[in-house]
Amino acid sequence: MKQYNLVLSGLGGQGVMTVSQVFMTAALRKNVQVKLFEGTGISQRGGSVLSFVRFGKSSSPKIPLGRGDAIISLEISEVASVIQYLKQQGQIWTSSGTIHGYYTKLTPELYPIQDDIEAMIRLKTTHLHMIPADRLAQEAGSAQAVNMVMLGAFSSSISFLNTDSLTGAIEEINKKFATANLNAFWKGYEFAKKERVAE
């Protein structure tokens, strides 16, 4: 398949690494070449977390600057920490909810204004998809499953991994919470599908 570079971002405890593992497991199920890079930072304290998932043939798990096809962010302000990896007019899929990380918990006034974040994003791309992931996760019965909502929403836009491979990977990785995670996945998927039809 043609190479596809995916950047994931969020805060420690949001499940960025779980989403990465689902993508990797789903790719292996479909015999798609995949490489994974995980960078945790101070994740244990709610610091920034990033991950790269590279589908198709690549020489390194790290995505070069300006070569990312898409970003999935579990917290909107965290887009700023990884946007340099996105290619011009790449896709950004982000939760519209805001969460204070380690530093802005201490000094909330440092948290950026959402309009400023969106303006910064639109300098790079017009392909911004904001998903009410907090609300959808609650509707799915698991407020913690924002990561699965975002996974489902993004998956509605790709063809190289189908929903069977992704949902199978979700079940495989965390059997205990599989039902709740699958509910959240489908909430995100259906929301994004409807939004695309509305466009």
TrEMBL record:
Pfam families named among the record's database cross-references: POR
InterPro entries, per database record: IorB_Oxidoreductase, Pyrv/ketoisovalerate_OxRed_cat, Pyrv_flavodox_OxRed_cen
Keywords: Oxidoreductase
The Pyruvate/ketoisovalerate oxidoreductase catalytic domain, residue ranges: 12-190
Gene Ontology molecular function, alphabetical: oxidoreductase activity, acting on the aldehyde or oxo group of donors
Protein name: Pyruvate/ketoisovalerate oxidoreductase catalytic domain-containing protein
